[in-house]
Specification:
582 residues; Rossmann fold; six-stranded mixed beta sheet; five-stranded mixed beta sheet; 21 helices; 38% helix; 16% strand
């Protein structure tokens, strides 16, 4: 009942008095009538105000949400699909406003739907239920940590359905999830004869929608059939795994050390802001250097995402004009390059302005920066890392794929790279990164990006757990990587495929030695005995002969070939090998 209704009822009751009214009662009636008139006037102003035109005023539509004093009680249930908008796209004033409101889920790099979760919980009554369908990034992304922590401390998550890349909306391509939680203390036990009947304190029914789910399927039945229980959720990534998958993930993490704790550096590729100007083909590169050899100083080879293959890239003879702001280049020392870049007119400027060209076309310059017009958009202060041997990968990729990049080779911003590792240690690292074990791990912890695959941003790669072993123990991995690369360079497809299988077997031995030995499929010692590195004075022909010889040995050695055939019967290998997301 609203305050207006309360006063009206009081006045109605007083008017029924058959014995007259004293002066005090008359004064109170006058005060109440005055207050009622003011409240009715305020209501009329709100309803007629242009600010509230077409607005939904819930206090008028749902007066039962207020108690007899007009104080807000809360909703029983809230169902919604809040907007997905990155907070960094809002004005500074709006962002500061949210910070001042002390939203626990606010993150400068986050998304507005996280604030909607918090606001929704705030306006629930105790024991009320909220269910949203939103982007699923909060489950694993760094900015989602505060949101996950908020759920753990302020709600009881009852049901979590990760829809992943399943297309829910015709007009949006975002990966989504459905979360249902109760506004209640965690000690509460929720029991009812329906889908949620097995939910108890600190446990959440969860289901990850896989490729076998179709539009005509019942979501409720699919969840019943494929549900798992998540217990003791924390602010860390929320990952929906079966018990066996969880045990495998845990063992991988126990065996390995995150890459960020190795003596390495991880950076992203170059953002030019206008690739059509800064990326040139072989013909233009040759022309510029032939006319002025000095131009070779700032023309470097460049790799694109599509050039990345496992272990070895496929260079497309593309080059970048590396006028990085951090180099503080005097462009007048390279007049031919200067004049070439000038042909792109207003587009190459870094003003963020929009122009109309002589043909009436709208031209947008590069985003506004403090850089010179001829410089790349990003400073690239780490440009010296490009002069080292690197491990590179696409940041959005169908499957984890890592390859070596030569000294001096650049990469575009669609990629990232790892550098400054100890000589030869890079071969060991890349063998682990390209293995089925790490592919499985990535599928369970990295944010999935629709049907495209995974968002392998630096925050995920730097946390991949790689076992720290001695240089001597790394040798068989290094040798096998050299063999794989040589086989690929010479189009020995069957050989390279078999050598990669050997690496996978070595990686299984590394992470799961007990299981592999129990299944009589442990081959590391045998590989150490039989595999030798190339010699410095080996000719190409000798290397080819050795590759063929070693390939045949692997196929005929009972221990090695038997392991490649039968290790799929070992539970851990079977689960990793049958990984649905791989």
């Amino acid at each position: 009942m609203t305050k207006i209704q309360s006063i009206e009822n009081e006045l109605k009751q007083i008017s029924l008095n058959l014995f007259g009214l004293d002066k005090e009662t008359k004064r109170k009636i006058a005060d109440k009538k005055k207050k009622l008139d003011e409240m009715l006037k305020d209501k009329e102003e709100i309803e007629s105000s242009i600010i509230y035109k077409d607005a939904f005023e819930w206090r008028f539509e749902f007066p039962e949400l207020l108690d007899s004093n007009g104080d807000f009680i809360g909703f029983d249930a809230i169902i919604g699909n809040p907007p997905y908008i990155q907070i960094q796209t809002f004005t500074i004033t709006q962002k500061e406003s949210w910070k001042k409101q002390n939203y626990q889920t606010f993150e400068a790099t986050g998304d507005i739907y996280c604030l909607f979760y918090e606001k929704g919980n705030q306006i629930l009554r105790n024991n009320g239920i909220l269910s949203y369908i939103t982007s699923n990034k909060w489950m694993r992304a760094g900015y989602g940590e505060s949101t996950r922590n908020y759920f753990c401390e302020n709600t009881n998550p009852l049901l979590l359905i990760d829809l992943g890349g399943f297309s829910v909306f015709d007009f949006a391509t975002v990966d989504t999830n459905i979360l249902l939680f109760k506004k209640i203390e965690k000690s509460y036990i929720y029991e009812q004869d329906n889908l949620l009947s097995c939910i108890i304190s600190n446990k959440t029914i969860a289901c990850s929608i896989q490729k076998d789910f179709k539009n005509n399927y019942s979501l409720q039945e699919y969840v019943k059939k494929n549900q798992v229980i998540l217990d003791n959720l924390t602010k860390e990534s929320w990952i929906i795994l079966s018990k066996k998958e969880f045990d495998i993930k845990k063992k991988i993490e126990e065996k390995g050390i995150p890459l960020k704790d190795w003596d390495i550096l991880i950076n992203r590729g170059v953002t030019t802001g206008l690739n059509e100007a800064f990326i040139i083909d072989e013909k233009k590169k040759t022309e510029l250097i032939k006319l002025d050899p000095k131009n070779a100083e700032i023309i470097k080879p460049i790799l694109r995402g599509r050039d990345i293959k496992k272990y070895k890239s496929e260079f497309a003879n593309l080059w970048i004009i590396s006028t990085f702001p951090s180099l503080k280049i005097n462009i007048d020392k390279y007049p031919l390059i200067r004049d070439y870049l000038k042909t792109f007119g207003k587009k190459i400027e870094q003003t963020g302005e929009i122009y109309i060209d002589e043909l009436g076309n709208k031209i947008t310059s590069r985003k506004k920066t403090s850089n010179e017009w001829f410089e790349t958009q990003d400073a690239i202060a780490y440009y010296k890392e490009f002069e080292k041997e690197k491990i590179v990968w696409q940041r959005i990729t169908a499957e984890p794929t890592f390859c070596f990049s030569k000294k001096g080779e650049m990469t575009l911003d669609s990629m990232a790279f790892l550098s400054s590792f100890i000589p030869n240690e890079g071969k060991y690292i890349i063998s682990i990164l390209n293995s089925k074990v790490i592919s499985f791990y990535v599928s369970k912890v990295v944010h999935q990006y629709g049907s495209t695959g995974y968002r392998l941003s630096n925050q995920y790669v730097e946390n991949l757990p790689i076992p720290k072993i001695s240089p001597e123990e790394q040798k068989p991995f290094e040798i096998m990587v050299d063999l794989v690369i040589f086989a690929k360079e010479n189009s020995f497809e069957q050989e390279s495929k078999t050598f990669e299988s050997i690496i996978d077997a070595l990686v299984y031995d590394l992470y799961f030695p007990e299981e592999m030995k129990k299944g009589n499929c442990y081959i590391t010692d045998r590989i150490k005995e039989k595999v030798m590195p190339f010699k410095n004075d080996d000719t190409e022909e000798l290397k080819k002969e050795y590759v063929k010889e070693l390939y045949n040995f692997f196929l005929n050695d009972k221990k090695i070939y038997g392991s490649l055939i039968y290790n799929s019967l070992i539970d851990v290998v079977k689960i990793i090998g049958n990984n649905k997301n791989e």
